[in-house]
């Protein structure tokens, strides 16, 4: 059923968030809060070297220490064949995943796990780690992406040959694969151009910086049953990966998702869970593990850093006729950077006749990357949108006008294949044009930047149950961990269908044994896909309620209508009966068919792509190079805002992360390949005093493939900020800053160089 044009009573309102009280009072249970009787503490020994062969590991002394119940290393884990993984977000290989959880022959980055202990206290576990004797053969390492691609670079994997090229290379290299997208004839397009602009850009790896470190509690029972409580974006992913890596049947593993203190894509892999299960199996006790903040930085995935070149050709009137981009993405120690989405997203905002994009997935001696909010898109868009600004300046055309002229519309074929349908990019640009921020005069010394962004959004497999309780209240259960407010949005959609207040529906996240398979929370899919499953389940409940009312009144079911949470006779011909609400029908359940419930599983298709545009005003202190954001406006097509406050929060949060990426965040390595800023004191995320007020403007162009018109929201807002800020700095100073972060020392050096 389609509700887009209905008069909605719940969807679009702002009820109090269902998880809010527990979180602000400290009652919410996170993975680090979980306990088990007689549990042990598990800790990991990590490599101090960026690249080294493991000559030997001697755990004898550690195992003999009083209070130590288990010690494991690579020999305790099965050898896994090279096989493409499933369930996770982004490309992954099971063998690589196993080697990332526990090194075998080599360590490939500082922080790489190579042994673990389980002890009765954390202090004893730390003491045991210090007793493990490891002999290394230190090898040459490589950190930066272009250095890793260079001839003669230290090769991380002797069996890795570049895929995506023909003929297949005969020598191994650090280039895992090459991705190519082409549309039209780019060389012919550049020959038609009156103006051509080119630029080279770099970004640094940045961490998702979730406030809650990774943590889990695992129990391996004597009968082989495994229980895992963990902080994750996908507990079905944890079940599948743990089963595969340890050779355990999925049916023997039950994963319970705890409350999650942020993920942003960084909790779509396993790090601790297979290790904790192995320690539990060996010790016969439950094992609790949690990362320190240093562990998080040194051993869990940041997103890629990149080196990029972009070239754009246009006619004098501003019509773009050709665009070309080369992307080199760091994957970390194992293949799997977001090079595919990076190649897809950079030019997807525009209707271009000729496009050529080539991307390289490159390994180096860093932690394996993980997804980070629109993986790949912020990086590529920083380059494209910076160069679009340069093109506008060279043509003497307003930055917004240039984008309007070349904007993707319904029917535009993207360079990576699909044709845009029901998109809202032009509506977003119209909102920019009419917004007071864009029309306001700039203060002297300030600069203004504009940048846009695109994310395709995904659907996928989701399951949901809706059941009516004996008192007429409703429980909705899903398989989607709630990161961005999905319990609220799903409960609201169920309430809308049932015709009851939002407060009458309680949404829970069920464990892997209690709900059907559900793909992880990522790709901006949950409100779209899981919401679709929940909506259909609620519709089934309504049909059942109508059937039960018809049975009670002894009339045909077609003579019953459901409205405002009650069953009514559909017209005077149906008979004169008192309306029946959920509570009344629930009380009659025994006589009319048993408990009232429905479950639906879907493989949701038709996720509507999202577009956004950000306006940023900055001032630059020429003495220090410090950039202050004076005003910030983020405009986005959200399809339909189910809970507008959550949507605004997603947009503001994405913009805040993009601001940090633009101005201060980066991994800093010394000459030994060791990270020097593995903590929030030195890894500089923005704090409240760094942030402007971020105005979120919601444009609603409904996605017709969702019953309420929803499209993904959470990933688009991190894409434009870096280029918007770079363009504002260019406006304020005349300097193009092509390398992130645009930190005070870099700005000051550029100002000095410019005289």
Record keyword descriptors for this entry:
five-stranded mixed β-sheet; seven-stranded mixed β-sheet; Aldehyde Oxidoreductase, domain 4; 26 strands; alpha+beta; 755 residues; Aldehyde Oxidoreductase, domain 3; 21 helices
Explained architecture:
The chain is of the alpha+beta class and 755 residues long. It folds into 3 domains: 154 residues, Aldehyde Oxidoreductase, domain 4, CATH 3.30.365; 191 residues, Aldehyde Oxidoreductase, domain 3 (Alpha-Beta Complex); 299 residues, Aldehyde oxidase/xanthine dehydrogenase, molybdopterin binding domain (Aldehyde Oxidoreductase, domain 4), CATH 3.30.365. The chain is built from 21 helices and 26 strands. The chain has a 7-stranded mixed beta sheet, with helices on both faces. A 5-stranded mixed beta sheet has the order 7-15-14-13-8, with helices on both faces. A hairpin with a 5-residue loop joins strand 13 and strand 14. The longest helix is centred in the C-terminal third of the chain and has 28 residues.
CATH class of the largest domain: Alpha Beta
Strand content: 15-25%
What topology, given as strand order, has the largest sheet?
A: 3-5-1-12-9-10-11
Span between N and C termini?
Answer: 64 Å
């Amino acid at each position: 059923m389609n509700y887009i044009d209905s008069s909605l009573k719940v969807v679009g309102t702002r009820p109090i968030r269902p998880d809010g009280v527990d979180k602000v009072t400290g009652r919410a249970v996170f993975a680090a809060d979980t306990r088990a009787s007689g549990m042990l503490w598990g800790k990991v020994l990590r490599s101090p070297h960026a690249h080294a062969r493991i000559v030997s590991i001697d755990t004898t002394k550690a195992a003999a220490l009083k209070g130590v119940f288990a010690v494991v290393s690579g020999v305790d884990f099965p050898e896994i064949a090279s096989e493409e993984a499933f369930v996770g977000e982004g490309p992954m290989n099971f063998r690589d995943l196993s080697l990332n959880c526990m090194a075998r022959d080599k360590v490939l980055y500082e922080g790489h796990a190579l042994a673990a202990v389980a002890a009765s206290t954390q202090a004893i576990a730390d003491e045991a780690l210090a007793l493990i004797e490891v002999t290394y053969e230190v090898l040459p390492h490589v950190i930066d992406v272009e250095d890793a691609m260079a001839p003669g670079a230290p090769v991380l994997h002797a069996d890795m040959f570049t895929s995506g090229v023909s003929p297949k290379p005969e020598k191994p290299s650090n280039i895992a694969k090459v991705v190519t997208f082409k549309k039209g004839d780019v060389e012919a397009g550049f020959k038609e151009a009156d103006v051509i602009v080119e630029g080279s850009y770099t970004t640094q790896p940045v961490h998702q910086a979730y406030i809650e470190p990774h943590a889990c509690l695992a129990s391996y029972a004597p009968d082989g049953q495994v229980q895992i409580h963990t902080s994750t974006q996908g507990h079905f992913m944890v079940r599948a990966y743990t089963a595969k890596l340890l050779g355990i049947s999925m049916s023997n593993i039950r994963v319970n998702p705890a409350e999650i203190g942020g993920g942003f894509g960084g909790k779509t892999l396993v790090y601790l869970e297979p290790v904790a299960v192995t320690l539990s199996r060996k010790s016969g006790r439950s094992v609790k593990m949690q990362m320190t903040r240093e562990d998080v930085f040194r051993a869990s995935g940041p997103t890629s850093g990149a080196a990029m070149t972009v070239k754009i050709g246009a006619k004098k009137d501003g019509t773009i006729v050709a665009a070309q981009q080369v992307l080199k993405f760091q994957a970390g120690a194992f293949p799997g950077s977001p090079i595919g989405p990076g190649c897809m997203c950079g030019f997807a905002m525009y209707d271009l006749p000729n496009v050529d994009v080539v991307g390289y997935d490159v390994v180096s001696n860093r932690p394996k990357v993980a997804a980070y909010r629109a993986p790949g898109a912020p990086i590529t868009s920083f380059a494209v949108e910076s160069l679009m600004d340069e093109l506008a300046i060279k043509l003497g055309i307003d930055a917004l006008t240039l984008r309007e002229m070349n904007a993707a519309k319904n029917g535009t074929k993207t360079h990576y294949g699909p044709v845009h349908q029901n998109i809202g990019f032009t509506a977003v640009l119209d909102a920019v044009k009419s917004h007071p921020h864009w029309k306001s005069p700039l203060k002297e010394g300030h600069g203004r930047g504009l940048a846009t962004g695109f994310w395709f959004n995904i659907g996928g497999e989701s399951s949901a149950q809706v059941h009516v309780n004996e008192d007429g209240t409703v429980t909705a259960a899903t398989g989607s961990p709630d990161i961005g407010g999905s319990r609220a949005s799903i409960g609201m959609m169920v309430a809308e269908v049932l015709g009851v207040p939002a407060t009458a529906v309680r949404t829970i996240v069920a464990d892997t044994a209690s709900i059907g398979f559900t793909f992880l929370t990522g790709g901006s899919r949950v409100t779209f896909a899981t919401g679709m499953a929940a909506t259909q389940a609620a519709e089934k409940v309504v049909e059942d309620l109508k059937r039960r009312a018809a049975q009670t009144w002894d009339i045909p079911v077609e003579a019953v209508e459901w409205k405002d949470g009650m069953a009514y006779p559909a017209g005077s011909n149906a008979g004169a009966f008192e309306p029946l609400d959920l509570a009344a029908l629930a009380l009659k359940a025994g006589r009319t068919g048993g408990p009232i419930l429905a479950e639906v599983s879907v493989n949701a298709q038709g996720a509507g792509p999202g577009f956004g545009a950000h306006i940023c005003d900055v001032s630059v202190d020429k003495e220090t190079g410090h950039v202050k954001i004076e005003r910030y406006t983020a405009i986005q097509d959200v399809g339909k805002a189910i809970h507008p406050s959550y949507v605004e929060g997603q947009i503001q949060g994405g913009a805040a992360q993009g601001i940090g990426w633009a101005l201060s965040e980066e991994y800093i390595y010394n000459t030994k390949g060791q990270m020097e800023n593995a903590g929030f004191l030195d890894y500089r995320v923005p704090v409240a005093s760094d942030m402007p007020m971020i105005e979120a403007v919601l444009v609603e162009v409904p996605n017709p493939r969702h019953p309420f018109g929803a499209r993904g929201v959470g990933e688009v807002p991190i894409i434009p900020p870096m280029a918007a800020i770079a363009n504002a700095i260019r406006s304020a100073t005349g300097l193009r800053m092509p390398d992130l972060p645009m930190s005070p020392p870099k700005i000051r050096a550029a100002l000095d160089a410019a005289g």
